Known about the structure:
The chain has helices spanning 23-49, 55-59, and strands spanning 85-88, 93-96, 125-128, 133-136. It is an alpha+beta fold. Strands 1-2 form a two-stranded antiparallel sheet. A two-stranded antiparallel sheet has the order 3-4. Helix content is 23%, strand content 12%.
Amino acid sequence: MKNKPSRNDTCHCGSGKKLKNCHGKTIERSSQTWIIGAVIFLLLLWFLFFETTPPAETTSYSPAPLIPKKPNLTSTAPGPAPPGKVWSVEHGHWHNAPLAPSTLPSQSKTSEPKPQPKGDPPPGKVWSPEHGHWHDQN
Length: 138
């Protein structure tokens, strides 16, 4: 006599189905669920306790990120400005210096209205002299 029914025996519940298609599925599925849950739990533990951060990120860490800092309006630069930097009194640290006017891209003057091109306008469009292109007609 068998101690444990095989997968192809009829189910013990009396449904007439094979064990593998009835209660045999739940036994197999529950063990897989426990294994998957354990793996996820171990991965979470790994990332919570063993994850290392690069040193560059730890220097910018704020121990109290949700507590606003009071602006230090009286702060002065700690020394001469490094190349390409300007001291921000409002923030109390160095910022990148703005680009020199000679290095800025040339911008066309937007204050001068642009004339409408010759010819008929496209259907449903009106000319915008401020923007220098066609807009949808309202």
